[in-house]
Specification:
By secondary structure, this protein is an alpha+beta fold. 69% of the residues lie in helices and 9% in strands. The strands form 2 sheets. Strands 2-4-5-7-6 form a 5-stranded mixed sheet, with helices on one face.
């Protein structure tokens, strides 16, 4: 069931069917609840609630609030149970959904009763029974109305049959005229649609070409160094190290080639590419530094899509200009944090610091990392119009050592 529902999430994401994503998340929450994994069920319920709120799905929001209230009750988080249940009731009232109102009222009354708070339970239970009576009355009225409508329809059908025959000739001429106009309008709309689709495809091709160009600018220096390291290991007759290095190098090159034609990849893929790149550089520099990659446990890295290879140039700068010139106790930390519309990335090292690097740069060479980053962000301007700008700071001003870089990458599979 988990595998099938995750396939629902993947396919719904591919076709951008956000209601399907919400349904898949809710189903996964139910499965984990059945398995007794309440915390996992709560996490998926929260994701489903967030997506329902983005879709302004009033009924879905009401249901997710009530399901969360039930889960919190099971886990003994009593402070949040009534808050969530009342939010469910409020949403049900807003969208005029009597069945959900009835369900929320019953849950609240039962909760008060379970806490021996009969004073508050009684009026809520009265509202519940009043709502049940209202629903029953509405059903009776509906059935009576349907019977009356069927009877009236039967009476009117005989009169309509008489009028229909008289109008057939004139209606047929009118239909032919209308059909002709509709066909002409459809042809015109098709021509306009094809025209705009071609323009859109041309813009996508242009964006993809720019994407491939920028990615191709990022790797020559790294490839040169990697080949030099392989040559060095061969000279020193270290076949095992050479094989390990070649395996990581081939994986990274294959990933770069695959991603050069993509506008986005999952965050988990980006993290895996970074790990391989850092390991290669660490082997090349004789393990002169350690590294860590952090992200919250509840971060759904498989469900978050970001632009590919946006982080690697800054990591390369940290190793090349910071840690390479430092001591053997170098340290590199890359942290990720989800901010809904974008992913926050923090890259820190304990190297010489950006200020010292700028002073020692006698050749006047200017790193292309920030320039390439800003140019690529123009491709994603639809998603990045409100993103904070990159920030590069020398950590010595805050009592530390090295450089910190803060980036904000657009989440390409969320609503903008």
């Amino acid at each position: 069931s988990i595998v099938c529902n995750r396939n629902v999430l993947r396919i719904s994401k591919e076709i951008n069917w956000r209601a399907g994503i919400a349904a898949g998340l809710g189903n996964l929450a139910d499965v984990f609840h059945e398995m007794g994994e309440i915390d996992s069920s709560i996490i998926y319920r929260r994701y489903s609630l967030r997506l329902s709120q983005e879709l302004t799905d009033c009924e879905g929001i009401s249901e997710e609030y009530l399901r969360l209230a039930e889960l919190y009750l099971e886990t003994g988080r009593y402070d949040s149970v009534l808050v969530l249940a009342n939010k469910s009731l409020q949403k049900a009232v807003e969208c005029n959904y009597p069945l959900r109102q009835s369900e929320a009222l019953k849950f609240i009354a039962d909760y008060y009763s379970s806490r021996d708070n009969y004073k508050d339970a009684y009026p809520v239970l009265q509202q519940y029974y009043a709502m049940q009576d209202s629903i029953s009355s509405a059903d009776v009225k509906k059935n009576i109305g349907e019977l009356e409508a069927k009877y009236q329809t039967k009476v009117n059908e005989q009169q309509i049959e008489l009028l229909t025959f008289e109008n057939q000739l004139s209606s047929q001429r009118l239909r032919i005229s209308i059909l002709t106009v509709v066909i002409l309008i459809i042809l015109l709309l098709l021509i306009i649609y094809v025209f705009f689709m071609r323009r859109h495809q041309e813009k996508l091709k242009e964006a993809n070409l720019k994407q491939q160009l920028f990615l191709s600018q990022m790797n020559p220096h790294f490839i040169f160094n990697a080949l030099g390291s392989i040559q060095n290991y061969l000279y020193k007759n270290k076949p095992e190290v050479t094989a390990s290095y070649l395996a990581r190098f081939s994986f990274l090159m294959r990933a770069i080639l695959n991603n050069s034609s993509k506008m986005s990849i999952s965050l988990s893929e980006e993290i895996e590419i970074l790990k391989n790149y850092i390991e290669l550089e660490r082997m090349r520099l004789k393990n002169s530094f350690d590294y860590e990659i952090h992200f919250p446990k509840d971060l759904e890295t498989d469900l978050i899509d970001i632009p590919p290879m946006m982080i690697q140039p800054f990591v390369e700068n940290a190793i090349k200009h910071g840690l390479k010139e430092g001591k053997d106790d170098g340290r590199l930390i890359v942290s990720f944090k989800d901010n809904n519309k974008y992913v926050e990335v923090l890259i820190t090292d304990n190297g010489v610091g950006i200020d010292e690097t700028m002073k020692s740069n006698q050749s006047g060479h200017k790193s292309m990392a920030l320039t390439i980053f800003n140019r690529r962000m123009q491709i994603y301007k639809k998603h990045s119009s409100k993103l904070p700008l990159p920030s590069i700071k020398d950590r010595s001003y805050s009592g530390g050592q090295g450089t910190s870089v803060e980036l904000c990458l657009p989440v390409l599979n969320h609503a903008s």
